[in-house]
Design brief:
By secondary structure, the protein is of the alpha/beta class. The chain folds into 2 domains: 2-130, Response regulator (Rossmann fold, 3-Layer(aba) Sandwich), CATH 3.40.50; 135-213, Orthogonal Bundle (Arc Repressor Mutant, subunit A). The chain is built from 10 helices and 6 strands. Helix 7 (153-163) crosses helix 9.
C-alpha cells in the first residue's frame, strides 16, 4: 500500500512514517501543509493519504478541506484524517458528501499500529471508519429527546463497532454474540434512527452520520 503522510509537526510525522515502515507500508511522500499534500497526491497517486486536520497557515481546518478535495479530485486515493480532538462536527463535515474511502481517527489511537493498519485497509477498500471514542461520547451526551438517546446499551455497542467499519461477523466476535443477533440489533438501530431499507444507501454509514449530526 502506497501512502502519503501530512502533518506539520515533524516528530509526529516521523513517528507515523516509522510505524508504517515497520508495518510493511510504503510511504511515498511527506507533507507539512495542505498545499504540499495536494501536490504530492497529484504527483504520486497514493492509495491513502493520512492527513492532520489542523495545518498551516491558520491551523484550523486546512487538512479537512484538503481531504475533501482529494476525494473529489482523486477518487482512487482514500483519506484517513487524524485529529487531536473529539470533534464530531469535523467528522460530520468530512462524511457529508461521500463517506466511502474516508476515515477519522484520534491521534492517540494511531500509536497502536494494529488499529492504524486496520483503518488504512478499511478506507483503502472503500470503507468508512470513525473513531469509536467520538461515537461513544456523542451517545453519552445525546439529548433525552433524541433518537440516539433511545438506544439500549447493546445497540450502542453495536453502533460503535459499526463506526469502526466492522462487519456483522466481526461485531459478533467482539461482543461474543451470534451474527444473527447482530443483524437483529442492527435492524433495531435503523428503526430507531428512522432509516428504512433502501438498496441505494448504506444504512450503517447513515446511522453513524446521523449520530454525528445530532
Amino acid at each position: 500500500m502506497r501512502i502519503v503522510v501530512a502533518d506539520d509537526v515533524m516528530i509526529v510525522r516521523a513517528g507515523l512514517v516509522r510505524l508504517l515502515d515497520e508495518a510493511g507500508m510504503h510511504v511515498c511522500g511527506e507533507a507539512s501543509d495542505a498545499a504540499q499534500l495536494l501536490r504530492l497526491v497529484a504527483l504520486e497517486h497514493p492509495d491513502v493519504a493520512i492527513v492532520d486536520i489542523r495545518m498551516p497557515p491558520t491551523h484550523r481546518d486546512e487538512g479537512l478541506v484538503a481531504a475533501k478535495e482529494i476525494r473529489s479530485r482523486y477518487p482512487a486515493t482514500s483519506v484517513l484524517v487524524l485529529s487531536q480532538y473529539v470533534a464530531s462536527r469535523y467528522a460530520a463535515r468530512l462524511l457529508e458528501d461521500q463517506p466511502a474511502g474516508l476515515g477519522y481517527l484520534l491521534k492517540e489511537r494511531v500509536s497502536d499500529v494494529a488499529v492504524l493498519v486496520d483503518a488504512l485497509h478499511r478506507v483503502a477498500g472503500g470503507g468508512c471508519v470513525i473513531d469509536p471514542a467520538i461515537v461513544q461520547r456523542l451517545l453519552d451526551q445525546a439529548r433525552p429527546s433524541s433518537a440516539a438517546a433511545e438506544l439500549t446499551g447493546r445497540e450502542r455497542d453495536v453502533l460503535t463497532l459499526m463506526a469502526e467499519g466492522c462487519s456483522n461477523a466481526a461485531i459478533g466476535q467482539r461482543l461474543r454474540i451470534r451474527e444473527r443477533t447482530v443483524e437483529a440489533v442492527c435492524a433495531q438501530i435503523f428503526a430507531k434512527l428512522g432509516l428504512p431499507p433502501d438498496p441505494d444507501v448504506n444504512r450503517r454509514v447513515l446511522a453513524v452520520i446521523k449520530v454525528l449530526r445530532a
